[in-house]
Write a structure and sequence with these properties.
4-stranded mixed sheet; mainly beta; globular; single chain; 1 helix; disordered N terminus
């Protein structure tokens, strides 16, 4: 049995005040507790992928804890407020 996971990640910038719970550059940042199994209106577990696809076609490694805490060395997530995941498992 083979599993294929396709991930499309779209980062959206938005207006409004910055989230004051997330320190700049990950200093003192803790990823929120996640619901297991996944649940509506609950944080997603701090998953990571070796390769994620950005909306502009670029690929990069993605670690949700690093993105949340703005400590990702491959992409600056600070201007974005949302992530959209499209996951397609196939077997």
């Amino acid at each position: 049995m083979r599993f294929l996971l396709a991930l499309l990640l779209v980062a959206c910038s938005g207006g409004g005040d910055a989230d004051t719970d997330v320190p700049v550059d990950g200093v003192g940042c803790d990823y929120p507790d996640a619901a297991e199994p996944m649940a509506l209106n609950e944080p997603l577990a701090a998953y990571s992928w070796a390769q994620a696809l950005l909306a502009d076609g670029r690929t990069l490694p993605l670690d949700l804890a690093s993105a949340y805490c703005n400590s990702d060395t491959s992409y600056d997530w600070s201007p974005h407020d949302y992530m959209l995941f499209v996951s397609v498992p196939a077997w």
